[in-house]
Structure prediction request, 274 residues.
Amino acid sequence: MRLVNMNHSKIAIFSLLLLLMSSCRDGKSEADEVMTFKRVKMEKTIPLNNEKDSPKCTVFLDMYYASDEDGEPGRRLNSTIISDLFNFYGEVMPIACERFIKNFHEDYIADLTPLYNQDRNNPERREWYDYHYVVTTDVDQGNGPFINYIINLNCYEGNAIESNQHIIMNFDKATGYQLEADSIFAKGYKPRLTKMLLTALMQKMEVENMNELRALGYLKNMQMYVPENFLLGSDNITFVFNPSEIAPMEKGSTEIIFSYQQLQPLLRSSFQHL
Prediction:
């Protein structure tokens, strides 16, 4: 769930623009800039059918969003979150939440009713049809010029294991633009950063080679890669792999942290000041 990719020349201009726009506004440093966030909470549970003991689907949303006071930067931030999470465009957050819940419940009934009718007389399969979808959010504005927007997703959709994921989005405080890897790192960064991530993971797991790493369950039948999930801190970047992305679900999420000093050779010139 990401914005449309830009070509490298546009990204370079975009990065420079962010630096210029966020360096100073009304005499305040970029670290002093803050957005004012509102919060919308919605929860709705519906039955699959009209039976007394019908399976149910619960959707709970707890979403922070920038207020109208934040002007165009706030609208830009909200639009990015809504399009990435809900795949809606041109909606304000409360309406987007209502629409998402409505669509989720409609899909639940349409997709599961025929299957449930086949399993109606099998009590062991009853719990397969109880769904829940829970989204909570956190906002951190304490990391210099950045806003960290963290989406926590918990869902159960008829399987034996609940799914827990974290979606991390980083924004420029002054402009509301999302800061993705390609706008932060210089052209050609991926091979070198991938190698750094792999080396750091091996050190974290205290192994010396790929065979030992894979024996622990990491990177089986796959290679290391640069994750879309990362958190821009005031002094470092934390790369986050969700459960089951590079290791079995039971190992949980995997975090790898690099200081900006370690990443300095890979950063675009407009981010060299970090």
About this structure: Helices lie at 8-23, 71-86, 93-119, 181-184, 189-205, 210-215, 260-263. The chain is about 35% helix and 30% strand. The longest strand covers residues 131-143. The beta strands are 24-25, 28-29, 37-47, 56-66, 131-143, 146-157, 163-172, 230-232, 236-241, 254-259.
